[in-house]
Amino acid sequence: MLKRLPQYLLGKDCLAGTVTFTVLFALIFLTIYIPFSNTAWFGFASLQRFLFTAGFVFISILILVASRAVMYRVSKKYAFTYLVYVLWCFFEVLLLCGFYTFVTVDIVGPARLSAMQVFSKSFFYGVILLLFPYALAGMYFVIVEKNKTIRRLHTGQPAFQGGTVAPVEDKLSLYDSSGVLKLSVRIQDLYFMESDDNYVKVWYTDTKGEMKTYMLRSRLKSVEQSLGATPLVRCHRKYIVNLERVKVLRKEKDLYCLELDCDGAAPLPVSKTYAPNVLSRFMKDSPEKVSEEGGLSAV
After folding, report:
1. Which H or E run contains 270?
2. Which helix or strand (DSSP H or E) is residue 31 part of?
3. Dihedral angle at the C-alpha atoms of 77, 191, 163, 166, nearest 10 degrees?
4. Which of 49, 114, 193, 261 is positioned for an S-S bond with 43, CB 3.0–4.6 A?
């Protein structure tokens, strides 16, 4: 339960689809359930009952939409575990059941039933009306995501939880944390990628040779895990660099930095954690680009 929830389950499409499916499921269930209930006051027999029913349904949908909108915003700043997600769903059940109890007892007023009796019964059916379709919707999106992963594997594209970067010939196809393709760029046009909280800023040149940036909703760690046999390498906790666009690797005191073949681009630092891997890649592929302190190498 303390394991992190897959990011695609917190995407806009998934959250909107979950709410839509839950509302449809609830409407169908209540239509069947009402004739057998002694607390349900829903109906369309009279104008007053129709207005109560329509008003309750409308406000309930607004509560769910508001809750999922807040969930989406919070998930962008904090990691969601399965436990947090389940507790959030139970909170939604309690909130709607409390609202239903208030309307039933204080407005509709069924005879011989206390507020606790109404709430306990509404909570039982609230679990069915919300948690059951939540589970079904979650399983559906998990299956959809697994099918996407299988398709990528069949086409030779590495896939993983979070963002996806898949090399196709001389291009990289960049997917966001929901598995949606966002950008395809030639490897030779890509300079580096920079971590920016829950986003990755991609620096590349367009067909006119002008430097552009693109904000990809993903984590740099997820991008790093799918680089494979590309010239892209992690050089710092904040950066992934394209070695083909590096003009020189310079040593300054105890640290290294990478100068790119782009006017105006600041050198990228190489942290001690990633220095061994970066140095080994350079010594293997481009030893002529290595420069000692105080000197420049011709490329």
Report:
1. strand 268-270
2. helix 12-33
3. 180
4. 49
Given 3-state DSSP classes, what are the helix, strand and coil percentages for the chain, each rounded to the nearest 5?
A: 50, 20, 25
- pLDDT lower than 70: segments of the chain: 1, 34-46, 49, 107-113, 148-169, 285-299
* Sheet of 211-217, strand order: 211-217, 199-205, 190-196, 239-242, 232-236
3-state DSSP of 206-260: CCCCCEEEEEEECCHHHHHCCCCCCCEEEEECCEEEEHHHEEEEEEECCEEEEEE
CA 150, 155, 157, 158 torsion-angle sign:
positive
Per DSSP, 110 falls in state -
Q: Single out the residue of 21, 9, 15, 14 nearest to residue 133, CA to CA.
A: 21
Beta-carbon-side half-sphere exposure of residue 97 (alpha carbons within 13 Å): 23
Give CA–CA dist 292/161, Å, rounded.
40
For 154-216, the DSSP string reads HTT----SS-EEEEETTEEEEE-TTS-EEEEEEGGGEEEEEEETTEEEEEEE-TTS-EEEEEE
pLDDT value of residue 39:
58
Length of the chain: 299
- Can you give the pLDDT at residue 70? 93
Torsion angle in degrees (nearest 10) through CA of 198, 134, 82, 94: 110
Residues 233 and 227: beta-carbon distance below 8 Å:
yes
Number of H helices, E strands in the chain: 7, 12
pTM of the model: 0.51
What is the rounded distance in angstroms from the CA atom of residue 288 to the CA atom of residue 189? Answer: 22
Q: 30 near 96, Cβ under 8 Å?
A: no
Q: Which two tokens stand for residue 234?
A: 């992690």
